[in-house]
User: What shape does this take?
Amino acid sequence: MIENAGFIITQVTNPINLLLLLVGNVIGIIFGAIPGLNGTMAVMLFMPLTYGMETGPAIMFLLSLWIGGCSGGFIGSVLLGIPGSPSSVATCFDGHPMAKKGQAGRALAIGMTASFIGTFFSAIAGAFLAQSVANIAFAIGPWEYFGLCFMAITMVLAISKGNMLKGLTSACIGLLLASVGYSPIDAQARFTFDNMYLMGGLGMTVVLIGIFGVSMMILAHAKGFDPLPEVDTNMIKGIGIKFSDIQENLVNICRSFLIGLGIGFLPGMGAGLSNLVAYSVAKNNSKHPETFGTGNPEGVWASEASNNASIGGAMIPMAALGIPGDSSTALLIGALTIHGLEMGPMVFKNSGHIVYLMFVVVAICAIICFFLQAIGMRVFPQILKVPYHYMYPALIVVSLISAYVDSSSLYKCGMMLFFAVIGCLMAYGGLPQSPLILAFILGPTMESNMLKAFQNTETVATFFTRPISCVFNLIAIACIFSPILKTLYAKYVKKN
Amino acid sequence: MKVSRDQITGAVIVALGIFVFAMISTFKVPFTASYPGPKALPGLAAVGFVICGAGIFLEGCKDKEQKTFLIKEGWIKLIINIAAIALYILAMQFIGFFISTPIYLYCLSTWYAKGYVTKPVSRIIFSAAVTLVIFLAYQVAFGYQLPMGIFG
Assistant: This one.
């Protein structure tokens, strides 16, 4: 790494490159904050602009878009209660209730600080661990991936507000929705009803915003609007939180960071999974788990520290193995290939200067985002002062347009309305929404890895003979039975 | 006989499970112990629906006192909201984004503002401004083509 220091310093001190980083971060934050748009879309949209650039500035600009998008996702989740992307779903659970209680500034300050910690330290960890940690990925096969997804889905029991049956039902709806379209490997059309729009599966934007956003707004009107929340921007001093806040949540932050880093480095996994897992683990380990979902800052710390830690994690397999950790890193690999760089085990030898530049750029982007958000933090919460009769109609239209631009088809808007109705019906039945989202995100990965595993060994026993897979699967089974065992134990204690 | 929300939810979920079972039985690739195939994931969901749905139904039989979800007026508002969105989507299909959006925004903001003091002028400005901002953000800045309807 030291031998590349000269090149890295030249690149990051170039004023044009710094301007590119700043512009990229601003655009990325805007993309992250608007429902339906995200950092990956920003990278996709602006990638053609970089074809004429040198490799260094091009990768710096693309990374700044990605980091800005990941970092800005929490703004929409906190202020509007609509997740900009799957990576900020868990931030909605406590971030938006905090905003409704008049703590929008504090929630944003926590999100901003946790994002900074997650991104900055994951980049440092990635730079030092990339080569050695990547070797572990070689030992992980489809059995382990299936086990990890299975474990993550069963952890919904922790975030389904106490009712195991309703939580599992919600997860089953997610699995059913994930199976719409052609199946992996066998290409069997499932639940498509000969409709061409369903053959490619259901879009993430449509399901996420329909179930979380549109249904929430319709129900808010049907139930009668709450009074407008207070806005705490006048009370914000410095970065909005004290150092003691970080100290109090240090264990939660470190744990969530490690979860995010670990999940991020597994190819195909990413921030969409890590934020929900970290949230459920934080809830399980909290002294006041009953306050989660009502505006507990611990939930925001966990979600934001983990989803941003996945950035550094996702860059490890991208650099060392040439395997994308998520869709953004897949695009970045494509962009690097256009610039003549082939990611993989030889990249450290052939283009080590670019790889280490990437980690340094991510760390710098974390700092830039932190300052940009610290400035914006006093302005963003003003949106909460907009009366509901203006805000909700505007948000419904933005949600529908975000569904439309997903595939330039109004059919997707109709699908979003369908999922808004599903969201309302789930609210009627008291079914929690988060297990559905988690199962919907993980369903395809879980299924394809399960089928690959069976193709290899043709027996279910292998899932329990491979040590890592066995641990994941046993934890998953324990998660399913833990509420029953807890109830029985409580009854036993009461009796004696 | 009073039927609780959980009983209705449980019954609907069990019915959904049976429907999913019926659907996956039409898949050509068989489910075997050595290779579960495309039936596995929806099959797992179907089993979950039947077991959990039955459990929720039984829980509903025990506890019939539940908080009211929505009063009659709320249900009417809910249905009108859904119908209004459906109408807006259809309107975009035929008359395009630029005509349907300000009309939809004006009507919805007027309805939502019932009980609050607002002026029609401010609602007109709001409707036009939101339409313009969406156009500038999505079409001009990011290059997405918005629906044009018959004018496209």
Observations:
- The two ends of chain B are 56 Å apart (CA to CA).
